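Subject: SMP-30/Gluconolactonase/LRE-like region domain-containing protein structure
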Amino acid sequence: MQMFFRSFLLCIYSRTPNTKTRIVQDAYSQIEHVDQVASNVIGANGTFRTIPETVHYNPSKRTPPFFQVLHDDFLNIIGSNPTLTVISSDPSFAFAHEAPVWVLDRERNTNDIFFASNAGGLLGRSGIDQNNQVSRISMKVVDEAMRLAGRGKDVNVTYDKIDLPESVQMTNGGTGLYEGKIILMNEGRGHRPSNMVFMDPYPPYNVIVALDNFYGRQFNSLNDVKVFERDTIYFTDVPYGYYQHFKPEPQLPSQVYSFNPRTGAVRVVADGLNKPNGIAFSANYERAYVTDTGVLLGSGTDRTLPATIYQYDMDIISNSFINKRVFAYADSAAQMVSMWINMGMCMLAAPTVFTYGTPPVSSSESSSSANNLPILSSRIRAVW
């Protein structure tokens, strides 16, 4: 499945139950089924994609936005008649780039999404002299705005910047909740170290620094994070802060780590990756998934380097990652930053990649600088 849309915060919206249904196309449908057999031969006089980051796989030549479905199983997720809806927009600022965390608290009557702006990248308004920002948007306000606007109509809901202490610099990854706290992964900036912090999801958003070194050595630029069966936190470290000129030269290999906050133990669980980025686990915690964005050099790309999702088995004794194999290759050669594994399916989100499917996984790309957020309800399926 592929999705094509502009760079904003988006919702997948569907009135239909998530049961597989073959769609009868109509003038308003945002679903496009691809006949892969008919697309397998282009020919000597045809047009090939030489710049996959911007020229997307679109054999139907359909105008975005739309869902490109390569396998009907994807309809189990999006329903039979979904729409893409912009819910917040600022074309001058990549305000919703990373670290999506959904916090629904029925006792407090809150329903919020937290996210971070682009740290050091295009339209990020951040770098060696300026921190990026963490923000919050109320899905209660979004729901009401979408109700008033009507199905499929874009809205522009205001988001709130969160004031955080000096210890939180260039936030890149996020997950939660862990013991009631949001986990934020911060790349650091200049002499300020990269770290993992636990943030209270309610004002005044108190922060505790949980980890900022590997046996006395600074991490490069902590990237993405997931919690494994409530006890252990797994995260990736890759020197994008150095590539984007707001961190010193890397001092450690690019690796995947585990961290137990109760015992303080931190260890390497996977290496041999060019630029480990997004991380996720299967629903039964028997498999791990790590994206390698070696293709991205900080500024520019090298399309001969990995843009690959790797699957691992979890070693039941050490909880290390073993038996590495390719799960999928993202043909758009774009950054994959976060993943969710659910119902045997894999969903990735990134500035220019969204992949969702059962093996064989179908890759996709878009031009979005906003990132995927968790499934929210039966009506709002997902948010970017």
